Every structure is written in structure tokens, then in C-alpha cells.
Batch of 2 targets.
Target 1
Amino acid sequence: MQSPLWPRAVGDKLRQKTEGSAQHLKDDYSYLLTMNKQLYELYTEAVGTLMNEIVIAESREAIMQTTRMGKLTFLAFLFLPLSFTTSFFGANLQELGGDKDTLSIWVWSLVSVPLLLCAILFYTLDILQKWRGFKVYVYGI
């Protein structure tokens, strides 16, 4: 139903021309609507792909950070026992100018080396336990 205020073509020739123009406008609108839907789908997929790439990049960065933290943990396992024994004995050793009643540096070595070996053993056991858990998870062993 058309509005009575809407302009109308007078005569068959003009009516055909206006109906042809209206049909071209409808066709153009349909084409633009189809192109708009295709662009929407394309950009939606592109945004999803970009988000996946960002997630992958963040995962790689997290893996690298975890590797660095593992190296730092290993260094802490090495230096903590040595730091403890050096702070415990202090500089009161005969070789460093202490009295004859002070301990020798060999005593520090005899305490530090086994303590360091125990720390390395605990670290190795922890890694082996994680490896066994990984094998159970992957292989079901």
C-alpha cells in the first residue's frame, strides 16, 4: 500500500521507467546486503584468527618464561646451600686470617659439598617425579 503523498508516475512509459529504476535500486540493495554479510563473515573469521595467533604468541612467551624460571630455580638450588654454609661459618676461618682456634676451610668444604650434593639430589628427584607423572599422563604407564 502506497502513501497518497508519495509521487506517482503518470503514464505507462514513465511508470515502466520508475518500476525499472525501483527494481535496479532493489537489486543494488540486495547486492550491497550480500556483500555486507560476506564482509561481516570474513572479518569475523579474521578477528578469530588474530585472537588465536595472539593466544599462541602468549603461550610461547609463557613457555619461555617457565624455562627461564626453571633455570633460576636450578641456580637457587645450587647457591642456597653454599650461601647458607658461608653465612654460617662467616669469615672465621684460619686461611682468612682467623685464630688457630677457628675452623679450617676444609671443614667448610666438608659441610658445603654434601649439602650441595643433597640439594642437587633433591632437584633431580623432583624432575624425575615430574617426568614419571608426564609419562603416566601421556602413555598411561
Target 2
Amino acid sequence: MRPSFAFSGSPLLILLALVVTTTAFVLPTCPQQQRSTFAQHSHIYSTRASHSLCRGRPLGSSTSPLSATTFMMDPEVEEALGNETDPPSYTETDRKHMRRALRLASYALGKTRPNPVVGCVIIDQNGKLVGEGFHPKAGEPHAEVFALREAGEKARGGTAYVTLEPCNHTGKTPPCVDALLAAGVKKVVAGMVDPFPLVGGKGLARLEEGGVEVVVGCEKEKCQELNRPFVHRVMHGTPLGFLPLTYRGHSFVRPSPDTVQLGDGGKALQMIDAVVVDFNVKGEGLQTVTTLEKAGLLQDEVVRVVLANDLAGLPSEWAKNKKKTVRKIVLTSNIEAQRAAVVGLEGRGVEVLEMPTDPLAVGKYLHDLDLLSALWLLCPEGAKAAVKAGVVQDLWIHVTLQEADELDGVDDPDFLGRQFGRPMKVAVMSCDAIGTKACLLSLTVDDEATL
């Protein structure tokens, strides 16, 4: 029978919320002083490679990941912060200011790699909003700095609401902790602890040492959801992965461009840093990318990565790099026998690299490009390999209502877990909400379960 919208006894969760809630925040009006800065950085950031974010203790691996909201604070730092057992209470005013900071942070989704998105709001001693800001891109000032600049002397004795723990180390910019202490802020409310090993509670501890009242955890779940790609990359050494498929004729097939845009896929397209396509003779994956580009759904900053062994077969039209801001990379396991094709691709602005093209190797390569998240457009066999390798965390399965009448277990997490080699849990199944003839099943890899 057709999936029911009733909850009684049904295994299908018909929810309005989607798995990828990181983009659920309404984009705010950009603070005046940051508008020009943000506009300057809407191009691609083509850093070749970077230092690893996992120089500290990596918690888990790409084949045995932790959940995106699980990470450790340095035990000594935790003790220094008081090691409170009772969670602090927050007023509705606290939550309102933190939600504003979250909206500010969401303005830079897809722009900050490898950094997290962060928003900050400064409230003066009288409870008036006097400064706000967000982090626009790596190398630019952090959210706290923009907010403090706008607040000026009015920040003294005030409260800073920031979605992520302020940094206490010098990278491309000075420590935000120094700026907060110099401004005379008396209280800092942080949404979450920064999992990055160089921070990990140390920024909060230093603020306390400087006489600042520190509170952590206001709207914590929303803050963690917003930076899910950043947290995942720090924890596992690969970008957060999304993968769409279509279920047709009792088997999985490549998704159509329309399918990729549906439901969770439409949300994730706003935040991905890369799209990974395995090339076949029909060029199906590349056709999907082209369709998304023409629809304006792929930002120029999104790195296009193609896995191909037959370089001569790549369409010349795709290889033409019409926009210098769009980075195209071809990964292949054999360059030597295809030198002429390599020269042709490179002459059109496409980068060609010889390396293993298995999902885990590609995922680690994407990490080294400073990427936080990736959309994988793969054939069914490649999709299963990517899920099993741990580089995909969210799946979206599109099924027609006719097929849904005989689901054959496609809505059963155990069935799907056996198909993909990883435990699954159903997050959402919605029918008719995406069209009168289709259902969309959203799933996440269940890190806490076993097959």
C-alpha cells in the first residue's frame, strides 16, 4: 500500500524538518561594515593543500566515525572551567541573541573553509545590541572582531554572544580572546566548545582567567548543527558527505538532476564545498552537474572533482573552463598512457592528478584541499563503496509512488544497512510533499549501531 501519513504503527517518519538543518536559518541582513568584505570573497579559494586539522588527537576514523556532535575537551581545561555537572539556565533573551548570532553565521555558509561559520552579537550593559558580525572567509577577521569594531567602547562591561568558542591561538588572524579581553567584555556566552585541537576549551579557560564570566551551551544543538561539516572534518579527516540515489525497478540507480534538488539535496547544495562525480561513457554525472550549474544551484566556490580513467572520453564542452573562479579537477589512476589527453585538459584550465580513486583516498584528498563538505554523484556500486568507506554520512533516496507501493524494504534501515554495509537510521520520509508522484527518504549513517 501507499505510505501513510499517519504515525500510528507506521515506521515512516513524516516530518517537516529535514536532516540537513544547517541551512535552516533565514539569511539576515548583512552588517553594513561587512557587506563590501563579504562581496570581495564570493570567488573560489584555491588553496592547493593545507595543514591537517587533525594534528591533535583524532577522535575516530573515516571507517569508524563518531557522531558530529561528540567531541572531547582537554581534561585539564575542563577541570579549570569548573567541570559543572548542572547545565546552566538560559533566559529567552539569551536564546534570542544567540539565534541572531546563528543567523549571522549562516550568511557565510559555503564561504569559510576550512574554518567554521561563526556569528557574534555584542550587548551593552543596558541590554542594547551595539555590535554584530560574522566570519566571512579564512584569513579575514573573525566574527568577534567585526562585532567589537561596531560596538566600540560600548562593548565595555557588556556581553558577547558567539556561536563557537573564541579562539586562543594565532593562525592567519590574532586570538579573539585577546580582542574580547582588551574590549572589557564582562561576560561571554558561547554556543559550543570548539573541537579544533588548538582550541578545545582553552579559549574559554583563558577568558575565565581574565575575569570574564563564561557560559557555554546556549542553543548548543543549533550551533552544532550549523557547523556540522566543520566538526565532522576535524573529527574524521574527511569532509561531511551527502549522496543522492534513485530507487527504481527494485534497485538503486543514479539520481536525476531533479532528484538532487529535492528535499535535503536542495538544502545541502547551499553549503557544499565540492561535488564528486564518477565519469562513465554516458556522462550521466557530468550532465547532472551541468544542469545544476545552469539552474544556478552550484556556487562558483564549489570544486568540481571528476573520477575518470578514460581522460580522452571527457566531454570537451565540460573541460572548457569558462569561469576562472571555478576549479575543476580530474583524478585518475593512470596518467602515463594518456599524456595527450592530459595536455588537452590542462590547456583548458583543468587540473589533472594521478592518485588512487577509491572513496577513502578521494575523501582524504578533499580534506587536504581544505574542503568541509562534498556531494557525491556516483553509480550504485560507487555509492555503496563510498558509504562503506565512511565518506558519506547522509543519503537521500528518491522513489516514485508506484514503486513506494511495493517498497521491498527501501524504508527499512536494516535492509538499507545491509545494502550499503553501514548501519542506517531513517530521518525523514515524505511523500507528495516533493511532488504528486514521488517520495523522498532521508537517512543518516548510524554511528552508534552495528549491522
